Amino acid sequence: MTKRITLADFLAAETQGQSNAAALSALTLSIADACVDIAALVRHGELAGVLGAAGQENVQGEEQKKLDIIANDVFIDKTQASGQLAGIASEEMDNHHPIPEGVARGNYLITVDPLDGSSNIDVNGATGTIFSVLPYAKESPPDDADFLQAGNQQVLAGYCLYSSATMLVLTFGHGVAGFTLDLDQGEFVLSHPAMQVPAQSREFSINAAYAAHWHAPIKRYIDECVQGDAGPRGENFNMRWAGSMVGDVHRILCRGGVFLYPSDARMEKAGKTGKLRLMYEASPMGWLMEQASGKAHTGAQNILEVIPTSLHQRVPVMMGSASEIDRLMEYHST
Ligand code: AHG
Ligand code: MN
Ligand code: MN
Fold first, then answer.
1. Residue 1 has pLDDT above 70, yes or no
2. Which of 1, 135, 165, 273 is least crowded, fewest Cβ atoms below 10 Å from its Cβ?
3. Does ligand 1 have an atom closer than 6 angstroms to the CB of 118?
4. What is the pLDDT of residues 45-75, one digit of tens each?
5. How far apart are the CA of 239 and the centre of ligand 1, in A?
């Protein structure tokens, strides 16, 4: 039998010799703790009384589900208790959450999508939590502007997938490691070491209901895929769309292909450039992709190079197998 490596074992090896080893390990374990609690709520569903709408909207005008708010509270409570954070920004809060008086403050900022795939909650579909950790060197408490760092500044990023199994997938910039929650022991165990996006795959993930509004490069790419072996690609493709970025990106990470959430004419008419948020969806997922030998691009720029201008900024997203993203980038430049 192969040796059982827990998240704590992994962190000890991963951060060995680094001056910030203890801080990063404590923060990561607090994130894992929050995810274990959120997973339990998701698993109990209606029995935990967490389904349904909360009856209010977030700053982006989206209806909040009860679980969006509960997951946000759990994530804040658990991670700020680590003493390693200087502030927390979240999809569910207009501005960042300052660390309260009396709680130790550290040298990191975190941005989080506490419950990704909210529309899946009430139908028992896959959901997740996405997080991104940024450095913070000042003594004074941060303001919102301190969070506005490009994705290439991240020191830790990852997601937890709440599906048939609960999985934590993370990177510190030395590859991607996936852990599965052992429900009997209540701990994450390394199950997917050194994850790599397969270089070749014939699979794409996009909400095709918006096809009429797509711009030419996306239209061309998907048209060529759906023409199958009679078309210019000469091969048949497969399509999947779970409606949860965590579920869809996890599948691409495991099986290859592309995840696309482009901007389109209809969104732009409403003043939006894409749907997904740079700081707690696109950047952390983009870094994981790159660390697994894939690529992440907006169509105009590498996602990790986009300097945020606001906490809840939206960006077009294309990520997955490197050769497919290269092709999409080429279609965007012609
Ligand atoms: P969230 O539930 O955190 O607001 O994110 C939902 C996002 C993302 O998870 C998913 O890829 C996308 O919305 C689905 O959007 P459509 O409903 O337009 O397909
Ligand atoms: Mn989301
Ligand atoms: Mn969310």
1. no
2. 1
3. yes
4. 888 787 888 788 887 888 888 899 999 999 9
5. 17
